[in-house]
Amino acid sequence: MSLTHTDLLLAEHANGFAAHHDTWEDVARAYAAVSEPLFVAGVLLLIGVGLLARRRRLLEAGVLALAATGAALLVGALISQLADRPRPFVADPQIHAFLHHAADPGFPSDHATAAFAIAGVLVLRLGWAGVPVLVAAAALAVSRVLLGLHYPGDVLAGALIGTLAAVALCAVAAAFTGRARARRRPALTLREP
User: Cα separation of 28 and 146, whole Å?
Assistant: First the structure.
């Protein structure tokens, strides 16, 4: 069984589950509709609190989350143009889109890419405080599959791209701040006896 076939079967089962369990479909639809503004507002709030409370750690986490999201979405857009994979509700007549969406290519998922870039940075920079955002990103990915907007592979690819962008930007930032701190420290001098 190929990965594409497995991806299609999982998408059909998830979408069928949502079709037969109205409560799950309603929750997934509601969350998918509000998740994007919640993630954006959360990052902006983090930056605002960092600035107002003079909490450098929060400010840096928010700025890195924005940068990682931008980088990840750029990579995702390039991959999307190359892959040009149709969304499940376009390619498979058995899959119903429970949320209105354009019929543009769905691989990788932009929503999953951005959510995991933000969550990845927050987990790496804030530790356990970022875990709820990671759970929210996973819930967003699942909701997109349930609603017929993406195949599981679309959201997994988005999660991978977003996470890799978060790791890369956090590593670059750590190296940069490490060098900056080293330059600010006075050089050790040896005392003569």
Answer: 7
Say yes or no to pLDDT of 191 above 70. Answer: no
Residue-level pLDDT at 163: 98
111, amino acid identity: H
Cβ atoms of residues 65 and 118 within 8 Å: yes
**What pLDDT, on a 0 to 100 scale, did the predictor assign at position 96?**
83
Dist. CA 183–CA 117, nearest whole Å: 30
Res 193 pLDDT > 50:
no
Count of other CB atoms within 10 angstroms of residue 113? 33
Cα angle value 24/21/35 (rounded, 5°): 20
Residue 104: per-residue pLDDT? 86
The reported pLDDT for the residue numbered 3 is 75
Residues near 125 by beta carbon (within 8 Å), at least 6 away in sequence: 57, 60, 61, 64, 170
Give the C-alpha separation, 145 to 123, whole Å.
24
pTM of the predicted model as reported, rounded to 2 decimal places = 0.89
Q: Which of 191, 62, 51, 44 lies closest to 125 in space, CA to CA?
A: 62
Q: From residue 154, how far is each of 26, 49, 76, 144, 172 by CA, in Å?
A: 22, 34, 10, 9, 27
Domain 3-168 sits in CATH at 1.10.606.20
Q: Where are the domains of the chain?
A: 3-168
